[in-house]
Amino acid sequence: MTRQNYTFTSESVSEGHPDKVCDRISDAVLDAFLAEEPEARVAAETFATTNRVVIGGEVGLSDQDKLHDYMDRIDEIARACIKDIGYEQDKFHHETVEITNLLHEQSAHIAQGVDAAADKDEGAGDQGIMFGYATTETEALMPAPIQYSHAILRRLAEVRKSGQEPTLGPDAKSQLSVVYEGGKPVGVSSIVLSTQHLDEAMTSADVRAVVEPYIRETLPEGWITDATAWHVNPTGKFVIGGPDGDAGLTGRKIIVDTYGGAAPHGGGAFSGKDPTKVDRSAAYAARYLAKNVVAAGMAERCTIQLSYAIGVSEPLSVYADTHGTGEVAPADIEKAVRSVMSLTPRGIREKLQLNKPIYQRTAAYGHFGRTPTEDGGFSWERTDLVEDLKKAI
């Protein structure tokens, strides 16, 4: 039987975290190529450290001769990301940081694996397993610990960027330990927040005085009690932040990006990868299916696993688990999700409209639990499959 009373912890990191700076730049590069050519193949990786950003990886265009025409824009893209995040430190400033662009054309051997079945349907860009998850414990059908960890940092970024809290810096981490009773989240036993601050004279108590009102307004009423433990900047001063304080790399925050450890992860990162890479698109599809299963009332919790082989279009397996909360047998859910949506790479891309420059916005505060936008952003968060799923059962 599933545990009903326990404490579960998840963390988030802000857009100014070194790894998130790199995710942002990689996704901005991806968006730039997709804006020019929706079928572009991109695998962009970014490394950042003191006064330096290095961007590498592969790009595939229909006319590879055009690749060089876009290369001069990479420097501008990276600097715009760093500026928007808010870095103007002596040793990491959007105007003075050294940008090295090592992007090159995509390997023909990788391309042939994806394109081999062009007369039928393109193959997956790689082998692998991808997971999607949904739960009724929040309105977004996301696990509460990660959802509220993200929400805290988003709120602090808003007041920092608006000028309302000018002493806050871009780099931050949050961590919530959420108490569950009867399987439902009811409070937080501890709150951990470390945030960069620009005033060197500020103590941990000073920082708490700034951030505590925003944390309280973000969490549900009654979740913070006298018994809640607070750990705000527990090591003291945090003035040097971002890649100047710690090197960053694309793809190192895969649990932050997904479900905060509340669900399995296949191991593949998202940022910088175009949607032919099933690491990204199939993970989005699995979340889309799991969310619609839960929204349809078929279960209170649902995990969907998909698996792929490079060059093969159809998934090798579809697995559903409702964790003992299901109103419908998992085997029936597996059949239903296959019937309501094509799970080939092209089918996923077309259903979710993934060939658009919509990825830079995913790079911080989670890829899931976000609000779908009119331009196609976060399309995998829609619940428009509910009626089709009900009919398929």
Order of helices and strands: EHEEHEEEHEHEEHEEHHEEHHH
Task: Give the uncertain stretches in residue-range form.
Answer: none
Number of strands: 13
Please compute the radius of gyration using only Cα atoms.
21 Å
For the structure shown, list the relevant keywords.
10 helices; alpha+beta; 393 residues; 33% helix; 13 strands
Commentary on this structure:
With 393 residues, this protein is of the alpha+beta class. Helices cover 33% and strands 24% of the residues. It is built from ten helices and 13 strands. A four-stranded mixed beta sheet has the order 1-8-9-10. β2 and β3 form a beta hairpin. α1 packs across α2 and α4 crosses α5. It is flat and about 60 Å long. It starts with 5 loop residues before the first strand and ends with a helix. 46% of the residues are buried.
Describe what is shown at a glance.
The protein has 393 residues and is α+β, with helices and mostly antiparallel strands.
Indicate the topology.
Elements lengths: L5 E8 L4 H19 L4 E9 L2 E9 L6 H19 L2 E2 L2 E2 L4 E8 L2 H8 L12 E8 L8 H19 L5 E14 L2 E14 L6 H15 L10 E4 L15 E2 L4 H4 L20 H18 L5 E8 L8 E5 L8 H11 L4 H8 L33 H7 L1
Parallel strand pairs: 3-6, 9-10
Antiparallel strand pairs: 1-8, 2-3, 2-11, 4-5, 7-12, 8-9, 12-13
Helix pairs in contact: 1-2, 4-5, 7-9, 8-10
